[in-house]
Design a protein that fits this description.
Layout lengths: L2 H7 L5 E3 L4 E3 L7 E7 L1 E10 L8 E12 L2 E2 L2 H6 L6 E4 L3 E7 H9 L3 H26 L2 H11 L2 E2 L5 E4 L4 H8 L3 H13 L3 E2 L4 E4 L2 H8 L2
Antiparallel strand pairs: 1-8, 2-7, 3-6, 3-8, 4-5, 4-7, 9-10, 10-12, 11-12
Helix pairs in contact: 5-8, 6-7
């Protein structure tokens, strides 16, 4: 851990939370960075079910994608990149944690050596992309994944349109999306039939980016 962050932790008191406590909510920006001092936190997509009447909701995960066990930062990529949490985080055991206001967390990063800050940002960005891909495979069907991939890789042309140049074989693109090559070909054919895209070679034109965004859920 970087010395500045380590020193920052000592300023903020430790807190204990019970099993089932929701620590992060997917797609919501947290105003604190959370350090797990001890205990285990599950990451994934959560549902909330009522416990005994009059008590807080107990959160459970419908789909679990990972675990963080202290001592460790909880989904630090969101804090580093100033993004919403990519996943829900639920205490799997009793957890001892420290909450650091995001403003102080980011200030400590700014005051860190430049090279270290760049490396940390690159690692956070790569981890975020892997997490988003895993979530996409879990909660989106093949058409939604393909539409999201097209939008993410689109480039604007001089005429004001958008297109995607297929620089990899379809087999490799399908592997990235977690689908079979035959499924990718079928999905692209359906998107053409719906006038969302055009082109059959190495370049696909995005005729209706708004429709693709609606299909992708973004």
């Amino acid at each position: 851990m970087m010395p500045l962050l380590s020193a920052l932790l000592q300023v903020h008191p430790a807190q204990k939370v019970a099993v089932g406590t929701a620590l992060l909510k997917r797609a919501v920006v947290s105003d604190t960075a959370i350090f797990i001092a001890s205990g285990r936190v599950a990451l994934g997509i959560a549902s909330a079910v009522p416990s005994v009447p009059g008590t807080p909701l107990i959160c459970t995960l419908e789909h679990q994608l990972g675990v963080v066990e202290g001592p460790a930062w909880l989904e630090a990529n969101a804090a580093v990149l100033n993004l919403p949490s990519a996943m829900d985080a639920v205490a799997e055991t009793e957890v001892t944690l420290r909450r650091v206001p995001l403003v102080e967390f980011n200030r400590s990063l700014v005051e860190s050596p430049g090279a270290m800050r760049i490396v940390l940002s690159d690692i956070a960005r790569a981890h975020r992309q892997q997490t988003e891909l895993a979530l996409s495979r879990l909660v989106k069907d093949a058409e939604a994944r393909c539409a999201e991939w097209l939008l993410r890789n689109a480039q604007s042309s001089e005429s004001g349109g958008c297109s995607v140049q297929l620089q990899q074989r379809k087999r490799l693109i399908a592997a990235q999306l977690g689908i079979a090559p035959e499924t990718l070909s079928r999905v692209l054919r359906h998107l053409r039939e719906r006038s969302l895209i055009s082109g059959t070679g190495r370049i696909l034109n995005l005729l209706d980016p708004t429709g693709l965004r609606s299909l992708a859920g973004v």
